[in-house]
Amino acid sequence: MNVHVRKIVRELFISTPLGEEVEIEDVYEGFTILIKDYKLRVDLIALNMLDFDIILEIGCLSMYLAKMECYAKIIILRMSNGGEVEFTGGGGKCGV
């Protein structure tokens, strides 16, 4: 696998659902992930979190013309060949 690691030049922190802040230093560029037989090209950031398999940023979602149905917990991605991938999320709770 040919992976390019890019160092982040300015400070970048991500807040976890538990309220902790994690500093991000590296971006792993050019990964291919497989969602329901469709290959998506993404850049990844490693996070030390156990409850998530992957978090896709808004830029990646917009590249695939994502449609989000928040109440139903569904994301629909549109592929360049006209196909659609529907992903249904789990039963997470909102801490309001």
Topology diagram in text:
Blueprint lengths: L3 E12 L5 E15 L2 E7 L13 H6 L3 E3 L4 E5 L5 E5 L8
Antiparallel strand pairs: 1-2, 2-3, 4-5, 5-6
Q: What's the total count of β strands?
A: 6
The proportion of strand residues reads over 45%
**Can you give the helix content as a percent range?**
under 10%
Global morphology: globular
Structural notes for this entry:
The protein is globular and about 35 Å long. 6% of the residues lie in helices and 49% in strands. A hairpin with a 5-residue loop joins strand 5 and strand 6 (84-88). The protein is built from one helix and six strands. The strands form two sheets. Strands 1-2-3 form a three-stranded antiparallel β-sheet, with no helix packed on it. Strands 4-5-6 form a three-stranded antiparallel β-sheet, with no helix packed on it. With 96 residues, it is mostly beta strands. The protein has one domain (4-88).
